[in-house]
Design goal:
By secondary structure, the chain is of the alpha+beta class. The protein is built from eight helices and twelve strands. The strands form three sheets. The protein has a five-stranded antiparallel β-sheet, with helices on both faces. The longest helix is centred in the middle third of the chain and has 36 residues, at 115-150.
């Protein structure tokens, strides 16, 4: 009785199934959400409810393993056109009901309607992608005309005019980089980019990126280099273009956050079936309370500039390859960003 009273007070739809997976009871929220009556529900096999919306092979396997194996499952997603309420996306959670005294075996099934949140998520991704795409074209066009002005193709410029135009050009470059980050992030969010793994030499890719970033490093007298590999094979099975994005992002961040005269060191280590790549700097470090959030999209530490998407994109890429990425830092003593990739 106490259990039934608790079930009745819960706002999300709940149903209790017996050992044969027939509905033993349901709360008011279930009847209200699915617009059904107790006569249409109680005693029915779960797979026969409504227009058989729960008759899904994967769900069958999960439910039928709960009692004999004492299993449970969480966040099983069901997208269906339900008979009385139309198109819905539901998250299902189920587990065996623990009982102190011996009695009938029961399963509690909780149902969460996430239709609105899924719709908002799709709309957000579409808006982000559209915004980034529409912003990129005007920025590229403006940069082209500014380059012509700066080069004198539209007439001679005074020194002051030249300086102003170069500042505008520099700021437009920053805008283009931000827009590119947004566009790339939106594509990853929409799962448009999937890794196309192939064997490639990650050492060579790192050396290319070091050369590309040396100009910025030299401006701050930063020494940047790759530790010798000794006998380690630098071959990994990954999407070279995506991994290059990660390497470049970590190097740019390391140089940006390292003071004049500092060092940035890249190291490749062997870890059985994977390679570990670490980028260590002697920069300002990351405050401890910021560490849990640095890979979150749009997160920016303090007054740092940029889109706040670089590390989030890097994390998405590495995890899509089955690897891991993490950071270690001591404030005022530098940071080390590391990631793994399968060989």
């Amino acid at each position: 009785m106490i259990f039934e009273a608790i079930v009745e007070t819960v706002r999300e739809p709940l149903i209790v199934l017996d050992s044969d997976l027939r509905v033993s009871s349901a709360n008011r929220s279930f009847y209200k959400a699915f617009k059904v009556t107790s006569e249409e529900t109680i005693g029915k096999l779960i797979y026969d409810l409504g227009n058989r919306q729960w008759d899904i092979p994967g769900l069958r396997t999960l439910l039928e393993d709960i009692l004999p194996k004492n299993n449970k499952f969480e966040d099983y997603e069901v997208e269906h056109i339900f008979s009385n309420i139309g198109h819905k996306v539901m998250l299902l959670n189920a587990r065996r009901i623990a009982q102190k005294k011996k009695g009938p075996q029961m399963i509690l099934l909780a149902i969460e309607d996430i239709t609105k949140s899924r719709k908002l998520e799709r709309e957000r991704k579409n808006i982000l992608s559209m915004f980034a795409h529409d912003m990129k074209n005007p920025a590229v066009t403006s940069k082209g005309f500014l380059s012509r002005l700066i080069s004198g193709k539209a007439g001679a410029l005074t020194e002051e005019q030249q300086n102003y135009l170069e500042i505008i050009h520099s700021e437009l470059n920053k805008l283009s980089e931000l827009v590119s980050d947004f566009l790339q992030f939106s594509r990853f969010e929409a799962i448009e980019y999937k890794p196309v793994p192939a064997a490639f030499n990650i050492e060579e890719e790192i050396r290319k990126n070091i050369e590309a970033e040396k100009v910025e490093a030299e401006k701050k007298k930063i020494i940047i280099g790759l530790e010798p590999l000794d006998t380690i094979s630098p071959i990994v099975n990954a999407d070279a273009a995506m991994v290059n994005n990660v390497i470049r992002n970590l190097l740019v961040n390391a140089i940006k956050n390292t003071g004049t005269g500092g060092t940035v060191t890249i190291k490749i280590s062997d870890r059985d079936n994977e390679l570990l790549v670490s980028v260590k700097d002697t920069g300002i470090g990351i405050p401890e309370d910021h560490m849990p959030y640095i890979f979150d999209a749009f997160y920016r530490e303090g007054n740092s500039k940029g889109s706040g998407l670089g590390l989030s994109i890097a994390k998405t890429i590495i995890e899509a390859h089955g690897g891991s990425i993490w950071a270690e830092s001591i404030p005022a003593n530098g940071s080390t960003f590391s990631f793994t990739l399968p060989k």
